From TrEMBL:
Amino-acid positions noted as binding UDP-N-acetyl-alpha-D-muramoyl-L-alanyl-D-glutamate in the UniProt annotation, renumbered to this chain: 41, 43, 166-167, 193, 201
Residue positions binding ATP: 124-130
EC number: 6.3.2.-
Family: Belongs to the MurCDEF family. MurE subfamily.
Pathway participation: Cell wall biogenesis; peptidoglycan biosynthesis
Residue ranges constituting the Mur ligase N-terminal catalytic domain according to the UniProt record: 35-110
Cofactor field: Mg(2+)
Protein name (database record): UDP-N-acetylmuramyl-tripeptide synthetase
Subcellular location: Cytoplasm
Residues annotated as domain Mur ligase C-terminal: 354-487
Domain of life (superkingdom): Bacteria
Species: Scrofimicrobium canadense
Keywords recorded for this protein, A-Z: ATP-binding, Cell cycle, Cell division, Cell shape, Cell wall biogenesis/degradation, Cytoplasm, Ligase, Magnesium, Nucleotide-binding, Peptidoglycan synthesis
Amino acid sequence: MSIGQQYRPNLSVRSLRDLLDGVEGVHSSEIPDVEIEGISLDSHDLEPGWLFVGVPGEHHHGARFAESAIKQGAVAVVTDMVGAAHVSGAPTIIVEDPRSVAAELAVRFYGGSHQHLKTVAVTGTNGKTTTSYMVRSALGSTCGEVGLMATGMIDVDGRPQYMLRTTAEAPVVQRGLAVAAQENRGAVVVEASAHAMSLGRLDGLMFDAVAFTNLQHDHLDYYHTMDKYFQAKALLFTPEHARAGVVCTDDSWGRRLASEASIPIVTVSALTETPSGVNMDHHWSVSWFGPREDRWGTAFTLVSPEGIAYEAFSPIPGAVNVQNAAVAILAATQAGVPIEEAIRGVGHTPPVAGRMELVPSDEARQPRVLVDYAHTPEALRALLETVRPLVKGRIILVFGTDGDRDASKREELGEIAAEMADILWVTDENPRTEDPASIRAYLMRGIARVRPTLEGVTEVSQCRRDATRMAIQAASVGDLVMITGKGSEASQEIMGVFHAYSDTIVATEVLTAPL
């Protein structure tokens, strides 16, 4: 699934020789004298005159798609020795590390056009997307129109596109920033995944501010240990990538990051006591939070290092979103927004698709339905704790877990669901290449440890659409049906095929169907 196809900044052509001049790891002695009009790693997102870069992937080498890229008009291919065996019909430049070279070439080709943009990056396990939207809203008060590259969406010119990855490949990121500059955006917020840092997708970018929300159990299929996962996130908090940072110290990983980061850091504790060892001259804290009767959301008091109390508001309810809002406010101030303007902007953040998203329903005759991205044990627990006080009836949970991803979290997800929700509908998320039944079996084992009789538990083997439909139709007025795991995703991946699917759209169809 390709993204970024609308993003075509108006830039001068560049000589491939000039672009590669001084780049390390180039093995080819002869560089063809061809003109380049763009760069892509995706053979479907490419136009005549562009350079195609074939990078090694988890399952396939990108150079296997060079023939398709050349048919689309690629005038040259950059790849490694392994990839070169797949290329014919166009000049091929062999390099040691094509992914690293792709990032450097993207910076050289696209980077000069967006140096005046304010840029903020947000990382962490949970809360990245919500915090990114909040930062975008906070920056808008002083920066005008603000672009966003986040999970599920990229919008740098007022024409949002669906994005599969949390962080796009380096040429798409650089191309998007160039378009944002040409469209007179004043700033861009980028959601930064650990994979993006490990794979160099943000190499060559210097952010005005970067922010860290938390580190929780996820992606251990790739990183194997939490320490390696942490190290990937920490790369963002270095002088190569950022001028200043904001770190939430509510977990031990945040406290470690605050002590090890090599850039100026502001810290904040939102859900815990101020930890020992932090620099109190740069530490903010949340002293109180609670619901507001007149608005859906949570009010809170943010206290500065000097002891000044600021009244703030998160338009998304729950303690975890107080944390996200506090981080967003401080990230905006680190990027130059006055604190009062940042607070005002965050308080008016529009609804974030797939993040505690209420699907419209007739509450006089239907249950409430909520869609959320919670897909880690910690996120699911936090979500259930948040909604429990808001629900008069039962909490009915529709959930699954991803295939080809960290299997070690699956049984814990089942345990938390069984412990904290009333009715469970176990279904599929993105099975990818795994057998869906085997994925659900992990969840069922976790559930059975808490509920040996499996009371109130239904496993749906047909499809996620059926699970959603049956859960909503079986619910009553006063109940809350929570559909978790996919959030705003617009597809479901099964055996390499991306099927059009949206939890929000399916729930809406069920709620609006004729009686």
